[in-house]
Amino acid sequence: MLRLGLVISRVGLILVAIAAFMLTPIPFSLYYGTNDIRAILLSAAITAAAGFLMYRLHPEEDEIGHREGILIVTLGWVLAAGFGGLPFYLYGTFTTYTDAYFEAMSGFTTTGASVLADIEAQPAGILFWRDLTHWVGGMGIVVLSLAVLPLLGAGGMQLYKAEVPGPTADKLVPRVRETAKRLYIVYSIISAAEVLLLLAGGMSLFDSLTHMFGTMGTGGFSPKNASVGAYDSVYIEMVISAFMFIAGANFLLHYQAVMRGDLSVYAKDEEFKFYSSVVGFFILTITANLVLYKIYPGILTALRYATFSVVSITTTTGFVTADFVKWPAYGHYVLLFLMFVGGCAGSTGGAIKCVRVWLLLKVAYCQLFRIIHPKAVRNIWYNGRIVLPEVVQGIQSMVVLYMTVFILASLSLAWLGKDIITAISAVAATLGNVGPGLGAVGPVDNYAHFSIPAKWICSFCMLVGRLEVYSVIVLLAPEFWKK
Fold first, then answer.
1. Is the pTM of this model over 0.90?
2. 382 φ, ψ to 5°?
3. In the chain, which end has fewer C-beta atoms inside a 10 angstrom radius, N or C?
């Protein structure tokens, strides 16, 4: 039987964690003398109070079942965005709660799609919170809660499996809470390294932190209207590109590399090699295409903008330095395609993930081989192991559901009056947690002109994409709610 009291109680603990994070922008509000402290404090108080009251419904430590884990994760993200949008709404950043919710959902799901017209007009505390949602959501709100809230530890594997992206949820150590803590240690070490390098490039502490949040969370929110392009610095673009690439790779590999000093894990991992090959191939081909059409004055300039855009879109970060809508059609097709591929499993990136694409290519090749050799027995191997049929079936089902949501959401936006390029790219960008798209949601535009229903459709796509379809869509099945 589904224990709703237990579900609501554990979601309450997640909200308490969110309330604590809401307080972190206050030092910057004080330093810059902004008037957003009241809105931030009130939002944190409301969130903490709601979380505590929810927790009191079932304060006892109890084992979390499979269905409870799924519901806790999904409801946790929905309410995190609901309460996370309060600072925007109470301060007056947005006049409608829909816009505040959209911005918060975009932040926590690390999508980076925005409805904020003039970013630099907002106070420091609001901007810091807006970017911090990326860092919190990047490794996952629930994984974070497992790391810091011991009461979520009972049955924690159910939450971890529902939250961690990828076909399988591998553990570093037997205890899930210890796994979550170790992942966050590595996450924090890499984050600190990026901040130091950005400071060395002349960024202020505030700008370094906020851009690190967007990079490591592969989110893309920036405190600048022109995003990373506002700095016009090759050094800063190189640093952010490198860390976007790192954030788009599997953090289990980073753990082995950082904590165990084993760099060979990258060369041995099939998904990482596929991910690197995809990024490298399309950087080179887009660069050649830009040079061919003389979009930029020289090959190095073309390489600079192609590299940043390809890494940003592949990792689903969404930072921009160039208006790629003005590029030739080849660049549009490639970037749209990369919105579906995404980063690696176990990364902070979104979309379908490289491991699934790579395994589907292997399945297709295996089928071709069987057509040529009908009597042959051929297994699918990945990293030296045979891939079980149920894993392949799960990947195929996930991709089918993903594309079904994409088609239905695109049709919905088209029905609401959006042109085909805007409708398709907006859904691809929000479902893949990318942010900027093509058409009317290109890198120099945003989603502010969308109608209220269109914003809620995109918010739903962000949630579905971040939780990799199953955890959200399964709630629509009547069987989920039956005893």
1. yes
2. -145, 120
3. C
